[in-house]
Amino acid sequence: MTRDELKAEMLRHLQYSFGKDPAHAQVRDWRMALSMAVRDRIVEPWFAATRATYSGQHKRVYYLSLEFLIGRLLEDAIVNLGLGQAAREACAALDLDFEAVMTDEPDAALGNGGLGRLAACFLDSLSTLSIPAHGYGIRYEHGLFKQSFHEGRQVEQAEDWLNQPHAWEFERAESSYEIGFWGEVEEKDGRAIWHPGDAVLARAYDTPVIGWQGRWANTLRLWGAKPTKLFDLARFNTGDFTAAAQPEEAARTISRVLYPDDTTDAGRELRLKQEYFFAAASIRDILRRYTSEYDDIRRLPHKVAIQLNDTHPAIAGPELVRILHDEHGLAFDEAVQIASATLNYTNHTLLPEALERWSEGLMRHLLPRHMRLIEQIDDWHARTTKGRTLSAIDQGSVKMGELSFMLANRVNGVSALHTGLMKKTVFAELDRLHPDRIVNQTNGVTPRRWLLACNPGLSGLVTETIGTGWEDDLERLGQLDPHVSDAGFRARFAAVKRANKAHLSDWIGREMGISVDPDAMFDVQIKRIHEYKRQLMNVLDVIATWHAMRGEPGLDWVPRVKIFGGKAAPGYQTAKEIIRLINDVATVVNSDPAIGDRLKVVYPPNYNVSMAERLIPAADLSEQISTAGKEASGTGNMKFALNGAPTIGTLDGANVEIRERVGAGNFFLFGLTAEEAMARREVPDHAGRAIAASPELAQAIAHLERGTFSPGEPDRYRHLAQILRHHDYFLVCSDFAAYHAKQRAVDAVFRDRDAWVAMAARNTARSGWFSSDRTIRSYAAEIWDVTPVEVGPGACVLAS
Ligand code: 26V
User: Which first-to-last residue range defines the signal peptide (predicted)?
Assistant: First the structure.
């Protein structure tokens, strides 16, 4: 598509799709016009992919996830369709600021963090690999809350992305299912019939997901909740308008917000309703598609593979058993066998507080038939494995991990270390009963978004050096390795990073009013705020460094910009205290004349996918410092390495595999191993001992207790100090000295710029394995038993 064609299409959409006169169009109108012009190019490959799947009777993959953290879609579509240059030029010809048009799009923030972003990368790779697939989720009216800071404290506001037309979705009013809740189960002639007490409609909204070079497109189908009946006209006519609208309100509540607060009974009930609502609608849709093509429901596993992204969709298991047994009339055991040959489950965390459990009472009340089936599945498992000591029902609650395991063909962890720990800890007993069921699938990230699109400077250099083709064959980055010993290449690599940093400095100056030196080291920690991720250890190191700088202002310090980004769960008080501390430390450090440009702390509010795309290409150092054994994988760690930022990190999650691949000499390792961490927790007063052994740590904690960063309120950080001294479960104190020392080793290498650049470039050259294409190929071969549909260039568009 040429510049002129695209421009003409934009003008056509502006006028005839949106009824806007170009003379009065705003950035939003132009952005919508460009989106429509680009979307038109997706529709044909999308239809062709669907037709090819039907005509070839290919097996399909269904990825069920309560979260899809997809971010912006316009640039992604432009990049995948190779329309970058045409789009830039068309905008220029229309006198539009291309960057402003692209950044006008709101992020689709339908996820909390890593789990949801992984689902989005997987959709991209499934399409790129032409694997017939659907993502299924909820069309939340409000995505992840908007974060702002008031006097350093996190403030949450409702996010409102659907307040404006959504450029990429197609509403499918004809694809609606009635989803029941509550009610009774009637036993009749040996059969169970569930009579739900209430119901809502699940309506489909489809977003096409275009793969690399537009060869294939899959569908992300999100469910919106609607009332089964229109509003109550009789009530309305009596003047009770609020009551008349009540059924609609009640139904809409189900798809209103991502992760409703589950600290109350009402919140928990809503969350379980969301889970069943979307799982049931998806199962119904999958079976409708299957039965439209095939007669024998027993062959379902030959044509369908369902992946459960964590236990959030786990109720899909009992629902599938219910439909096969109660509605299709299969014997219970056969229904369970077919369901468990179709379903697979990915575990994303071992943290006990994050493993889902539902009270039996709530489950029986909301889903009476399912609770009965869960008991039968539990019995069936005991009967068929002789594992009688093991149950998915424990002390009045249903353990969704165990239930998902029992009903799965394969269960996977998301990094080698995490999978090993799954086998040793939470699923030890189940692993013994089913020794081949647990497999590892180390996470990956899409190189289209996380290198090609977000870092044009580096991707340009890569292409100039090794040619194109790396975008969907990322291991080809290995061909950069020999170039790293070439001083010319290193200089160009350094120049790209410098330009990215200058660009970020400008943004930080504009957005935050903080001036940062692009030649300082950009040290970045971006992720959810959680004690196990140890942002607290990072900020303690900032305090220790600041203290040391003040003590010896004459020393030749390596200038650093410490960048933080991330949100805390609204009810997680300790995480919120850590946020406030980072902001308070920033206030003191950034205005300290004794420090000047040598240390800055920057914490831009409302970290999201788009901010990650801005920060990662400009990072020098990647902070991956979780307590070993606690971070299942991490995916940010991979994005940084790919973009030429070496890691300072622990042997946790995928850090282990990153270090193996980039080489120990290109990774700053510190800290206890997972095994050592477990042992250390048993040592009496481990924190006290560590504090006594590290004057820097003792001093930093003393600053917290003295109120150095909370003038006038010395008690503000007492609680954090108490945690460090007496309840240091995440071993911040035990790892601090090693971390602090390793940061000085980082300084030393950074001082030797050439050595640093070589290290950074080797990170890029050796990160090819962390493409989500590799991960998806591996799921396809080891879990789903599917193969890509063959499509030549353009073949998909021509297919009939
Ligand atoms: C959830 C919760 C919920 C309530 C209390 C505290 C808490 C802590 C952690 C979580 C995480 C839930 C699952 C999750 O998002 N896991 C992330 O999945 C990523 C993709 O596999 C992986 O890279 C991250 O390491 C892992 O934390």
Answer: none
pLDDT digits (tens, 9 = 90+) for 374-414: 999 999 999 999 867 799 999 999 999 999 999 999 999 99
Residue 667 and residue 621 in contact, taking contact as beta carbons nearer than 8 Å: no
Q: What is the mean pLDDT of the chain?
A: 96
Same domain, 139 and 217: yes
Q: Phi/psi of residue 523, each to 5°? A: -110, 115
pLDDT of 262 reads 85
Instruction: Tell me whether residue 226 is one of the annotated catalytic residues.
Output: no
Measured from the CB, is residue 571 less than 6 Å from ligand 1?
no
Bridge-based pairing of strands 521-526 and 621-624 is parallel
pLDDT confidence of residue 793: 58
Q: Is the pLDDT of residue 795 over 60?
A: no
Structural domain span for residue 88: 1-56+81-105
139/122 same-domain check: yes
374 and 234 fall within a common domain = yes
Is residue 245 within 8 A of residue 70, CB to CB? The reply is no
According to DSSP, residue 258 is labeled S
Q: What is the CATH number of the domain that holds 601?
A: 3.40.50.2000
- For the Cβ of 115 lying below 6 angstroms from any atom of ligand 1, the answer is yes
Q: Are residues 67 and 2 part of one domain? A: no
* 50 and 66 both lie in a single domain: no
| Residue 410 and residue 439 in contact, taking contact as beta carbons nearer than 8 Å | yes
Residue 134 lies in a domain: yes
Q: Which of 134, 528, 703, 766 is catalytic?
A: 528
